[in-house]
Design a protein that fits this description.
- A hairpin with a 6-residue loop joins strand 3 and strand 4.
- By secondary structure, the chain is mainly α.
- It has a domain of 266 residues.
- Helix 2 runs antiparallel to helix 4 and helix 9 crosses helix 13.
Length: 432
């Protein structure tokens, strides 16, 4: 069984890596081939220079992504078949021979730090290289380091206790530990949704109430008509890190708040801002957030159950070159809780990659539904105008490769989305 599992994992890793490279190369070629002409749907609204900038920006990100994929794949192989995880295990067992909770925390810290160091050059290149070259980066090195420090503190203060509790549950709750871990994970995610808007997000950004004026008046009228209650309308200083614009809902229950990037407020007209918010309201009214939570809860339960079946199997460890880190009992079972959790988290993305197009398709369907809702509640032409402005100012490609889009895009391609909105008949605002 060890050889079968190892061969299956390596074959699927090679297959998925090759597919990801092929899809990226297709996207690069397709975008570059359509670089010299603005699509007819955007003629007169986006200039050729802006279209070429978007194409070059897309290709630059894809090119860096290929190098990052190579580094991540190499790290995965080094961690498993290269013996890095086994070396971490031997090192920390010298301090914690019982392989208890402290050992598990140290093992996770080693793996996390290694992944962080491998990914750091790519983050720096992305922010201070590509984003800066195309005029989007506003992040200073000092702010970058400050963000990293805050993330580290949050990881230690929140992540470490959560990890210790999960490891304890896995050891103490018997055969059905995965059910207790699942319940803990759900509770934790709901708690984060509740606390993030008021306690975590302000650590990184400044949130100020939306100023009085036409934008606020339009939004309050829309919210009242739709019966949507929130804890406030806020503008976030996104411009201190990036020139990209966005808007989002966060929190749930009484902690719900609506957040606009200051860059978005500066770029859009009041009617356009209202239309963008109506789109976000569409996600809420069509229960997309609840549906996604339900899907992720179901999948996480299935994943944890699967880990529960693998955690005692010697071939699972041996098949990833970590057999020396476990001791096989008289009944033929083995257990290294922390190592099993790490190995599973490393290999799961490889086996789950074929599901990527399904999640992308579901997300695009939700975007269409939210657009339809926005066109019903506001002026659909205003949403079209807002989207075109955002495509232009965010340098989003207007000509994605269809197959790459099928796999990865959470939003419909620009031309398809605009055509869908134009096909919707103009309706007077109606009760939500």
């Amino acid at each position: 069984m060890t050889a079968v599992f190892s061969a299956a994992f390596l074959a699927l890793l090679a297959l998925t890596t090759a597919l990801r490279v092929w899809l990226s190369l297709r996207q690069m070629r397709h975008v570059a081939a359509h670089r010299h002409a603005v699509p007819a749907a955007f003629a007169g609204r986006i200039s050729l220079a802006e279209h070429r900038k978007a194409a070059d920006y897309t290709v630059a990100k894809l090119r860096l992504g290929l190098f990052e994929l190579a580094a991540d794949t190499l790290l995965l192989l080094v961690s498993t078949y290269g013996g890095l995880l086994a070396a971490f295990d031997r090192f920390w067992r010298g301090f914690f021979p019982d392989a208890g909770l402290a050992y598990g925390l140290a093992l996770f810290a080693s793996v996390g730090l290694t992944g962080f160091l491998v990914g750091l050059p790519f983050a720096v290149k992305r922010i201070f290289g590509i984003e800066a070259r195309f005029g989007f980066n506003k992040m200073t090195p000092r702010l970058f380091l400050a963000d990293l420090a805050k993330q580290l503190v949050l990881t230690v203060l929140i992540g470490a206790p959560l990890l210790l509790f999960v490891l304890w549950l896995m050891e103490a709750m018997g055969r059905h530990w995965w059910l207790y871990v699942w319940l803990t994970w759900l509770a934790f995610n709901l708690l984060v949704l509740l606390l993030y808007p008021t306690f975590i997000a302000p650590l990184f950004n400044k949130f100020t109430p939306l100023a009085e004026g036409e934008v606020k008046q339009r939004i309050e009228t829309l919210l009242a008509r739709c019966g949507f209650a929130s804890s406030g309308l806020f503008v976030m200083d996104g411009s201190k890190r990036s020139a990209h614009g966005n808007a989002y809902f966060t929190g749930f229950g009484k902690s719900k708040r609506i957040v606009f990037f200051d860059t978005l407020i500066d770029k859009l007209e009041p009617a356009e801002t209202e239309a963008v918010l109506a789109h976000e309201l569409g996600h809420y009214r069509r229960h997309h957030i609840a549906k996604r939570i339900a899907v992720m809860a179901t999948l996480s339960l299935a994943v944890l159950w699967l880990l529960g079946q693998l955690i005692d199997q010697p071939w699972f460890y041996a098949g990833l070159n970590a057999g020396e880190a476990i001791k096989v009992g008289a009944d033929g079972t083995a257990r290294n809780t922390a190592l099993a959790l790490i190995l599973f988290s490393l290999v799961l993305p490889v086996f789950a990659f074929p599901l990527t197009p399904l999640f992308s398709a579901l997300s695009r369907r939700h975007e269409f539904e939210a657009d339809a809702y926005a066109a019903q509640q506001t002026d659909g032409r205003a949403l079209i105008s807002a989207l075109v402005t955002l495509y232009r100012d965010n340098a989003a490609t207007l000509t994605p490769d269809p197959l790459h889009s099928l796999f990865y895009d959470s939003h419909p391609p620009a031309a398809v989305r605009i055509a869908h909105l134009e096909s919707l008949s103009r309706q007077e605002p109606s009760p939500c």
